[in-house]
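User: Um, what's this?
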Amino acid sequence: MSETKANLLLRNVRRLGDNGAIDPAPCDVRIEEGKIAAIGPELVGNGLPELDLGGSTVVPGLFDLHVNLREPGGEDAETIASGSRAAAAGGFSAVAAMPSTPTPNDTRAVIDLIHERTRGTCGTTVHPVAALTKGLDGKQLTEMWELADTGAVGVSDDGHATASSEVLRRGMEYARMCGLPVLVHCDDADLRGRGVMHEGFVSTTLGLRGIPSSCEEITLARNLSIAALTGCRVHVQHVSSEAGVEMIRRAKERGLDVSAEVTAHHLTFTDEALRDYDPRFKCNPPLREESDRAALRRGVMDGTIDVIVSDHFPHTRVATDVEFDRAPFGVAGLETVVSASFAVLVEEGGWSLGSFVRALSSRPREILGLPVPTLSVGEWADLTVLDLSARRTIAAETFESMGRNCPFVGHTLPVAVRLTLSMGSVTFQEPGMPERGGTGTSAVPVGENQR
C-alpha cells in the first residue's frame, strides 16, 4: 500500500449525513497527514493544495466485496496493480480479493504474496479472501487458523460450489471457530453441465445450452441448511433468481446469520441481452428473466440482499474474441458498478442515497468484520467523492482495468467518481481536475493511475 499520506483541502463538497441525506450546505474538508483535520465552511487552507469539487458529494470510502484480481497466475488478464487502479477509479477505497486465481489463495505464502504485490500500487486496500478447500477442489480444508492469522477476512471456494455436504459442514464449523464468514457460490455443477446461459425461452430460441435457476436454488437450500446446523456466518454470493431471493428472505426471518450480494449486471440486464451472442454478457450465474431481475431489485431495496458488488472477472481480448459457447464466464465491472446500480436503484427505483451508500460501503465491511470508515474529524480520510449530476458514456479504452469484457460499454450512465482516498492516501483523482494553492509539492501523488 502507498505510504504517501495526503495533505489536501477539499473545497465545496456536500457531505452525506448520518441520517442518510445530503447536507444542503456545501462545506470544506481539510486533510492533514492522511487524517481528517477539520470539516466546515470556508476552512483556512494552511498552505495546503486545494481541490474545488464543485458541489460533489463526499461519502465514506466504498468497498467491493467480490473482486477477482487474477493474480497470482492470471497476470495476462489483470494484475493486483491494475485491479487496484480500476477499483480506485470505480470509487472503491478497498476490495475483497477472491481466492479463485489460477494459483489459488489457499496458503500463507499466497496471502503474503498478495500483501507484497499490494505494496507500491496506487494504495487501494486489498483484503484477501482465502480458499475454503485446498486447490478449491472441495475435498480437503485449508489451514484456516493460519490463513486468518495472515490476514484472510473470509473463506470461500468462489466459483466452485463445494460438492460434498460433509466437507462444507466441517468447513463451516472450522470457519466459525476462526471467526471467519464463509462466502458460498451456489451452483449445482452436475445440473449446469455444459450450459452457457439461462435456460428458458431465449436460450431455446438461440439454440444455446441452458442453465436452469434450479442450479442456484438446490445448492442454496443445502448451504442454508448447513448454516443453520453449524451456526456459521454465511454470505451468499451473486444471487440471480427470484426463488433465491425468497429463500434468503425466509432464512433471515428464521434468524440465520446470513447475508447476500447481487451484481450490478444482474440488476440491469436479462437473458434478452444475449440475443446478439455477445460474450460480454456471459456470466455465471447467468443473466436470467425479467421476473428474476425485478425480484433482485426488490430484494436489495427491502434489505433481503445486503450489498452490491461488481463480481469483477476480467479476461484477455484473445480469450473473449471467440464463439459464445467457447468464451469464458465473467465480466469486468469495477469501474461501472456504482454508476449502473445507481441508475437502476436510485434514479429508476427511488431508493435513498443513504441506503445505496450503505450497501456499497459500511455493510460489506460489517459482513467481513472490518472497521467502517466515517467522515469524522480525527479519522483516516477513507472516502469517495461522487458527482451525482454527471452522465458519462462508458468507453473501454478509458478503463484502468486490463479487462475489456464489460457489458456496459457504450451505455450512458449517471455518476462520475471525482476522487478516492484509501486510509489517508489519494488513490484516484479525476483527470483534468484543477488544483490550486499550496506550498511545496502537491499532496496528490502521481502514479500509474493518473492520466
The two ends are 20 Å apart (CA to CA). The longest strand covers residues 50-60. Residues 59-368 form a domain with the TIM Barrel fold (CATH 3.20.20.140). The chain is about 30% helix and 20% strand.
